[in-house]
Write a structure and sequence with these properties.
Low-confidence stretches: 86-91, 187-219
Number of domains: 2
Helix content: 10-25%
Strand order of the largest sheet: 3-2-1-4-5-6-8-10-11-12
Largest sheet: 10 strands, mixed
Number of strands: 12
Structural class: alpha/beta
Oligomer: single chain
Strand content: 15-25%
Mean pLDDT: 77
Amino acid sequence: MPGFNHIRVRKSYSRDTIMVSPVDENGADRYADASNPHVVQAVSHATIVDDECNGGIPNTHVAYQYLADALGSVRVLRRGPEMSGGPEPRPTLPGRIKAQTMVRFIDLTAWNSDEPDNYWRTRPIMSLLPRPQGATRTVLNTSFDPRHPRLREASFSAYFLGQREVVLIFTPYERVQTPPPSKVVPMSATNSPTGTPGTPIEGQSPRTSSEKRMGFITSNIPPEDRWLGMINDLMYALSECFQGTTCKFTLVGLDTIPTAALNLDPALADDWITRREKIRKYIGRQVNFTRGVYPPQPPIPADQLAALIKDIDILTRDEYRQQVGQEEFDLVTVW
């Protein structure tokens, strides 16, 4: 096995070990045992690593430690595909590998997809776990079914503090063939986080909550009060980063999310320019709301806030592709 730049790592299906394969243009898998020192040496200079282990191998596993320690040139660590719902397993590789960029591929509406009736009733929930050592750039590619009736209730636990760049990409697709029923009776999500301060009344300061934990985003407020619906928690996490840090934010594909899922006027469905500015306005509102929660800080003056929000790129997928090029676009959007 010659040296390779892009590799994929997964747990062995038959043995308690890790397997590694180069990723080539043909998409062919050629997995070899990572406990073999010759295999590890061949892949040790890889700059792109795909992690499919999803917690299947403990951090104390000898093959895991040997491979992770040998990968000293990783530029991008990609993890996926991750499914929504339930406690997420602790990732295998991010805890030990050092990488500049973490790319996460998640499926927000995958939970119960084998049971169409329950699928349409289930609230989308996703936990986002720690990044690799030294990572200063996070890319989150979120796949979702735009037909799902509970999108605006989506719950994310996210933490972006310390990042220099955050890119949030939204990818629509139809998860199941069966269309949603005319009336959906919601299924309770017992594993949803708790503790979000309620939405403040216009002109009043938001209340604080002793249960609120920085970086742990919650969604138990009514969906009609979630200013940006499906992406409300992610905007909450982004707004934490405005508190004394510098970070570049890019939002990609918001035009593919139904207006109802973003709590926006349906009349804006065909008016992307107006919808984009409305989203930008609500992000600014969320920033000052967050500053009043934890730890309590005075709101950012309107002129300064306008300048901060203006620097957020809100792009269509085509616009982002043109900006970064096809190769980079494929790296962060195609698993």
